[in-house]
Amino acid sequence: MVATADAVATSQRSQNMKKVTIISLLIATGLLNAKIPLEFTEIEYVAKHLDRIKIEEVNLIETDELKIGSVIEVIGSYELGSTQNALLGLSITSTEKNGQHYPKKEEQKKIEKGSGDFRLLRKIDRNGGIHLSIYPLAESGNYEQSTSRLYFLELKNDSNQSE
């Protein structure tokens, strides 16, 4: 009996190691958290003097089509010179009433005067113009209306419901 229990335990450990190795290989090759590069263009760019937003890549996460329910990743850099502190946010401007406008935590980054890099994620919740915006920090501690905006994608007429 003891020999059989040891053999079963050894077999289970071997199977678990194979699973860990396979998962590690999938992660290393990017197949588990698939990113698909998405072509984008500068549709409209309005920047306050001394500010700059530059997009280096836009990726779809775990989907191959830009649609409502998709998650996008935007990677780039910024320069902030017009104010001391601001918020860089990934937003969608739309005439549709559903969905939220102000960026959630994973869709924003607090930035300070100077330059830096960013990586933001957003689940697409409606049709509209997808853009990055800089929201200056007011003396009151609240963020003001955006002063710089870079529109780079537009989703039109997707009737799919948000997941």
Tell me what you see in this structure:
With 163 residues, the chain is α+β, with helices and mostly antiparallel strands. The chain folds into two domains: 1-32; 35-155, Coagulation Factor XIII, Chain A, domain 1. It is built from one helix and seven strands; from the N terminus they run αβββββββ.
Which characteristics define this entry?
2 domains; alpha+beta; 7 strands; single chain; Coagulation Factor XIII, Chain A, domain 1; 163 residues
Task: Explain the layout of strands and helices.
Elements: H1 2-29, E1 35-37, E2 44-46, E3 52-61, E4 71-93, E5 108-123, E6 128-136, E7 148-155
Antiparallel strand pairs: 1-3, 2-7, 3-4, 4-5, 4-6, 6-7
CATH topology of the largest domain: Coagulation Factor XIII, Chain A, domain 1
Q: Could you tell me the number of beta strands?
A: 7
State the shape: globular
Radius of gyration: 22 Å
CATH C-level category of the largest domain: Mainly Beta
Span between termini: 52 Å
The overall pLDDT, averaged over residues, is 83
Percent range of helical residues: 10-25%
Q: Give the CATH architecture of the largest domain.
A: Distorted Sandwich
- Along the chain, the helix and strand elements come as HEEEEEEE
* Main sheet makeup: 7 strands, antiparallel
**Percentage of residues in strands:** 35-45%
Low-confidence stretches: none
What's the structural domain tally?
2
Number of helices: 1
Alpha-beta content class: alpha+beta
